[in-house]
Specification:
homodimer; alpha/beta; TIM Barrel; Double Stranded RNA Binding Domain; 3 domains; eight-stranded parallel beta barrel; three-stranded antiparallel sheet; 39% helix; elongated
């Protein structure tokens, strides 16, 4: 391990989550969100964090103002993104360039046109003036003491259309003092072989230091980035969780994990890649985008195995079934308890949850049989870890953990007489239960029957267990199991609940969707209380 | 375009959605779901559909039984997946091999170990016996008249550990008559350059026809598949929407789109790639997995541009901002967050349903706008043809078809005092409506609120329209749309109804799941009556 790794030296990991990533449909972070994300990115050890476009909008200007005061970065340098000066103006006189100069960022990344069609049709200026804009803006900012990188926008498409001009743009920026020139596959249409060829040509025919910026429109952003690095690029751009416009930018964690774990190139400070899973999920919390379970390396399913068949072999040698040790990216191997589950899976799963079952074969048999029997009736424990843990606790202790006794419940949904369109029905639930020796009869209203039951249940239990106030239901999934029976079918409900720090999933099954939901609801609160009381 | 394209000839597109794809966490399709997916895959024009593992579980056995009777495939051939015979048994005597032989599938894809560690630790047999198992099983099935492909499991890892043995496995299978040998990156840890090298070596040192089967653990499944094809593989395996265990399999649509649109290789019947977006979304409806907006080529965001900045340039020349014409995969460019439905789609759809809209541009505009507005609120007409036809009829005739007027409804679900386990709640619905000038007040009971409403609604209407007795609800799907809101979210309900001869799907949307179900229920009966009265 290279303890002397220079993040701002011979290889750059450059994050553009806060600028290009935020172009993603539906993302609209506050300044505080952006500051929080910057801290997470610094914790991962990236070399550069592109914070936004100061001067282009008040939020990004404010971000740089606050970052200068509030952000204490250990690893990363902050980069301000902006464009070359307007046509027909001196860089020194362009207010947009002034905003970059005054951003407080040590690095400015300038976006410049390198595609003749874009110069003429989008920028609406001459090819000569575009070169002058690049020359003037780069040298002005350099003279003012900033480090300058250049994003050569639409470079690959531009190169195909007019190679000579595209290369001329690179030479112009290099001669004016740009330290890195990132070749951008802005429309995301490239293949790895094509990227290699172009990077090779650029490195052979110019003196520029090549960076790479890829989008995922062909599903190849990570592959294209690696192809560029293998061809000699020494600066990679990307976004955490692959955020970005359309299909997204290259997923930076995925790129870095491949570089470090597959190509044996240390590009983050040693040891920090193990923070990747935690940080990818933390950023997803800030952006409020549910993390993708199937995301390479850091997804919740990335090291999940439907064991059954192979469980005994996994016990002997887990490396037979995974391409790397999940701990390398801070992830975990998970065994999915499914109807294929055998005894070995149950034992491993118990261990994962802190129960050592290895010396209790009868218990393992009992749990295995109950899981099989319940899965036959429609339950699934693959997703519902919390319900499985309650079942396990019940078998270990001889009784199911319980914090309240339900006497009965009822929920009415009916049409409103004078309702606005689309709001024609309302639900009301009544729950009778005993918690901590007190009997409660409570009523809750909701815009659906399950919501009403949830409200009623909480308002009763909260009096005995105020900690449930922070439990929040964040997902609710319904699946009809035996297709072919219409509304008279078995229903499976999965509920995900969070306490702010972590989340858990419970399951309910029944012919009655409301009853199945109720079962999952009761389990979700019970499990949350169990965990809270264990801490 | 090659009108003579042979899907079972020099290049194979081999889909394994129904087998390997269903290993994805949370997927658990019914036999009817699998049949529906197979029809969609055939509509895309893949050459082979791997249907499952007959004999390994009752569901897959049932799938092949029903497929032989019910599936009328235009393009694809059905493949049965299974393993080589058990150690120490003749292939002819192995019940698992018998299930493959008797599956009715013309093709059998055998999975075989090619990694010495897996032979010894997982299979627990000798290297020699493993070769004998392959030789015996392949030649037995060939002799029985089936075409045999071989999946060389863990091939790339096995090749690294013991190249000679891994190649011996391929030669053994080839000599015994396996037509294609798919090299599997079962653990998904490969990079494109490594895949190329191995495929080159296999093609140089053996005579086998090489296929490729990749998983996405490094985020490179598509890139690795393309690398194999560029090195000479002529059979690609993958799953629709990239379904699969852990991080998923190679996304087959993504692979095919890159082959056809980027590498200019026709691999599907000409013209069918334009069905990709529709089919990818339709399969997502069946599996009840929300489609990923950022999915390359077919995602809702794949050609979505944040307008503003570039809007005028996009108008002048959209090709400046997209890597291809989205129509090539049946997708659309979007400038704002809105629908997927363009005017052309509406016109085509109308034609499909028997309305010629080509001479009525205002009507098309009106319908397009209503679809946009409704899809924004969560409706989907992709799956719900019957609801779309009711909407179209409403716009054409100026009023929505109607056979009864609902005054109000109410449904109560409550716990029973003396109930059997698993049957603790019951639902009762009351509906007030007027049909054929008679007012009905009826009550129905059911094992769930929607079932109770269905019973009540039918018992009222049946008196005026006895033909509804033969309408039966055969599927009921619920999807929570805005994840992150728990039980207080927008719900979409899809209901499929049959009259014995054919079936139709209706949609309802609302914050209240009961209300959304009610809307879909009313539409399903209305549409059935409309059709009956037209006949």
């Amino acid at each position: 391990m290279n303890q002397q790794l220079d993040l701002h030296g011979s290889f750059h990991v450059y994050d553009t989550t806060l600028r290009d990533g935020m172009q993603q449909e539906g993302l609209n972070p506050t300044v505080a969100d952006k500051l929080a994300i910057a801290r997470h990115l610094d914790g991962l050890g990236v070399g550069y964090i592109e914070g936004g476009w100061p001067g282009a909008n008040p939020k990004d200007t404010e971000f740089f103002r606050r970052a200068a005061v509030e952000l204490d970065l250990e690893h990363a340098r902050l980069a301000a993104f902006g464009s070359t000066r307007r046509a027909g103006l001196l860089a020194a006189d362009d207010p947009q360039v002034a905003a970059l100069r005054e951003s407080g960022a040590g690095v400015v990344t300038l976006v410049a046109k390198s595609h003749v069609g874009h110069v003429e049709k989008a920028l609406r200026t001459t090819l000569e003036e575009n070169l002058a804009m690049i020359r003037d803006t780069v040298s002005h900012l350099r003279a003012e003491g900033q480090q300058v990188f250049l994003d050569a926008e639409h470079f690959f498409d531009g190169y195909r259309l007019d190679r000579a001009y595209a290369l001329e743009v690179l030479r112009t920026a290099y001669d004016a003092g740009a330290e890195v020139i990132a070749l951008c596959d802005t429309n995301g249409g490239m293949l790895p072989g094509w990227v290699s060829d172009v990077v090779n040509d650029v490195l052979e025919t110019t003196q520029v230091r090549v960076g790479i910026h890829c989008h995922n429109d062909t599903g190849l952003a990570v592959a294209n980035t690696l192809a560029a690095v293998e061809a000699g690029a020494t600066h990679v751009q990307g976004c955490i969780n692959g955020y970005g416009e359309r299909t997204g930018n290259a997923d930076l964690v995925n790129v870095v994990a491949n570089l470090e774990l597959k190509l044996d190139r240390q590009v983050l400070p040693p040891g920090l890649l193990t923070e990747a899973t935690r940080i990818a999920h933390a950023v997803a919390e800030v952006t409020n985008v549910p993390p993708a379970a199937r995301q390479p390396y850091v997804g919740a399913s990335a090291f999940a195995h439907k064991a059954g068949l192979h469980a005994s072999a996994i016990k002997v040698d887990p490396d037979l079934y995974q391409h790397m040790d999940p701990a390398g990216v801070g992830n975990d191997m998970r065994l999915l308890v499914s109807d294929m589950a055998g005894r070995a899976t149950i034992e491993l799963k118990g261990k994962e949850l802190g129960f050592d079952l290895s010396d209790n074969p009868e218990l393992v048999t009992r749990v295995t049989n109950r899981v099989k029997e319940l899965e036959l009736r429609g339950y699934t424990f693959e997703a519902a870890d919390a319900s499985f843990e309650l079942l396990l606790a019940e078998e270990v202790d001889g009784r199911r953990p319980s914090y309240f006794d339900v006497e009965s419940w009822r929920v009415i949904t009916e049409t409103l007489t004078h309702a606005a369109p689309g709001e024609e029905a309302v639900s009301e639930a009544t729950v009778k239960l005993t918690a901590a020796d007190v009997r409660y009869v409570v009523t809750g209203e909701g815009n659906g029957p399950v919501n009403a039951l949830d409200q009623a249940l909480r308002s009763a239990i909260e009096q005995a267990y105020p900690e449930i106030a922070k439990f929040e239901l964040i997902d609710f999934k319904v699946r009809i199991l035996d297709q072919g029976h219409g509304t008279d079918a078995i229903t499976r409900v999965l509920i995900e609940t969070t306490d702010g720090a972590s989340s858990w999933v419970t399951v309910g099954v029944g012919a009655n969707v409301i009853e199945a939901s109720w079962e999952a609801l009761v389990d979700s609160l019970t499990y949350g209380l169990l965990r809270h009381h264990q801490d």
